[in-house]
Automatic annotation (TrEMBL):
Protein species of origin: Solidesulfovibrio fructosivorans JJ]
InterPro entries: CULT
Name listed for the protein in its UniProt record: CULT domain-containing protein
CDD domains per the UniProt record, alphabetical: CRBN_C_like (cd15777)
Transmembrane segments: none
Disordered: region residues: 1-36
Record domain CULT: where: 48-150
Amino acid sequence: MPLSPFPRVIQPPRPIPRWGRAPGDGPGRTGRPGRMIEPRAGAALPGDRPLCCIACRAVVTSENRRITVDGDHRHTFANPYGHIFEIGCFAAAPGCLGAGAVTSDFSWFPGTRWQMALCAVCRLHLGWRYVPVSGGFFFGLILNRLVSGPAASEV
Ligand SMILES: [Zn+2]
């Protein structure tokens, strides 16, 4: 995989917002590589619009799961290799797999630890799963690797 797993902070630290803890998530479930983060199907909720993996069109998350983190939904970051990522923050991404160890190294969001987030179907690198020290989690997903549904798997 050509993309670096080591993002780097290029924005000044800001106050850490409070996070809601999702049902079933806990500190003990975050550290295992390759583990399904949420076992539920990735289908969007009624009235919602799915956002799908650009490679395999599996449902990853949905419009209604967009959230604001550090004052904005969208953030643009560069990693130490100069790759620029425009990411959007999501409260959940049932279609993602967490991969690799959870680490606090070079976290883009102050006060968070992170791990890679891959498409659960095709393993495309879709972004990162962030675990604030205050609890809960959220996803930072690379926006140009998501496309609007409907997904092929949704019938
Ligand atoms: Zn995929």
